[in-house]
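Quick bug: Response regulator transcription factor output formatted oddly.
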Amino acid sequence: MASILIAEDEARIAAFVEKGLTAAGYTTRVAPTGPEALDLALTDEFDLLVLDIGLPGMDGFEVLSQLRGSGSTMPVIILTARGGGSDTVAGLEGGADDYMAKPFRFDELLARVRLRMASAASGAAVASELSHRGLELDIRTRRARIDGREVDLSGREFALAEELVRHAGQVLSREQLLSRVWGYDFDPGSNVVDVYIRYLRNKLGADRIETVRGMGYRLD
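Here's what came back:
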């Protein structure tokens, strides 16, 4: 059973994240201060760190810096305040693997946790940039470009585009996309994947994503 360290000083948010991750099958521990978070992270007892930037005693940037300075490659997802774009970029450049802006939906956090855990378990490095037929995705800054022109994608749209680019040429079923992007199973009758595919087609070009009838979608 994978173990996740939650470094968060706001009791309400920490309880919210801990409850959800426990229900998803992970063991968890909460560290409400920076020094405690760093001490625990350095024990090698945890498989992933959810790290708030605004920790007391030692902020998340310093925790991350010292953690990476120790040689640790443990996946880290930082939590930032909404609109804190500079914090997000600084955290990603400092060695974080992903980020979430507060307030956030737990299902999106869970999807990101699962993606980072799967990458770490497989031993595969997560590329910082992906590209396919003029579509470029910057994984660290979560920015997308089409033929050099920046395109505004929501967090969920970006995650869906990332999954399609990583498996370009392969057919991905709706169930696979639900599991990998949304992180949990929706009602089988849900059309959420189809809705977001339509959003992507409108923004990236209708000819980029092919519908394979009865099977799913493929980035052509």
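Actually, after a second look the formatting is fine. Helices lie at 11-23, 34-41, 60-69, 85-93, 106-122, 155-166, 174-182, 192-204. Closing.
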